[in-house]
Every structure is written in structure tokens, then in C-alpha cells.
Amino acid sequence: MKNLKPVEPNRIPSGIVLQFGNIGENTEYLPLAYQIQVTDANIIDLEESIRANHRMYDHYKGLLSVNERLFEQIRDKAASHYTIQEFHTFLTNIASDYEDEELIGYLNAYIKKIENTISTNIPIVEEPRLCLIPKSSVNKTVIVFAVLLMITTFAAFLLEGIQKGQAQAS
Known about the structure:
single chain, mainly alpha, 4 helices, 67% helix
């Protein structure tokens, strides 16, 4: 190994670039120029984590404002006869108020969940009707089914016998 002494704190000789995962308390064993490089790398890491935390904070702040708005709507309308269809209309109206794609996606997912709840709780037929079938037609249907079953069974045995006869003749 060659012993190199740094000339300038901004320029490290021989183009060596240090990459450390976790320096911890070991920076004092490095030359001053390398300590500066490690400190600059730590500053960059901290700035990136601050930016990421700020983006997450803004995202959750937006989600909180949406949820507070939804909660306020439900709390104000809870005493009256507020239906889920009216709440669905309210959700579709406020979805156009937001510009953030993540919040719009969150509201659209919530709207789909409400639509699924509506579709599972509303009966398909509003006024069910009873259709009376005469007993004689049921009896006739059963008899026709039994006769057709016997005919198809007989035809299957007959075809099998013919195929065996042709196979033995060949």
C-alpha cells in the first residue's frame, strides 16, 4: 500500500472514492480529507431521508384531510336519513376537488368499495313474483324425461353391440 497524504480537502488524490455503509465512530481513524468525504456523504443521505419524509408527510397529510372531510360529512348527516347512495354521490363529487393522483386513487378505491357494498345489499328483483306451475305439467315433464332416458340408454347399448359385431367381423 502506498501512503498518500491529501493536498486539498476538496480534492482527494488518486481518485479514491470511499463508500461506507455504516461508519459510526470509526471516522476519526481516517485522514481529514476522507473524514470530510464521509461527512458529505452522511449529509447527502440525511437530506434524501428528509425529502422522503417530507413527501410521506405531505401524502399522509392529504389523506388525513380527505378522511376528516368524509368523517365530517358522515357525522353531520348521521342524525338524518342519509343513505349510502347519497354518500356515494358525495364521494364522486369531492373526487373532482383533488389534483393529487394518489388521493384521487384513494377516493376511487373507496368509491368502488361503496359500489360493491351497494350491489351486494340491494336485491336484484325489487318485487318478487310467484309463478305457479300446474302439477300436471310437472308430471308430464318427469314422464318425458324418464322415457327419453330409457330410449338413450337403449340406443347406447344397441350402438355398442353393433360396434362389437363390426370389430369381430373385421
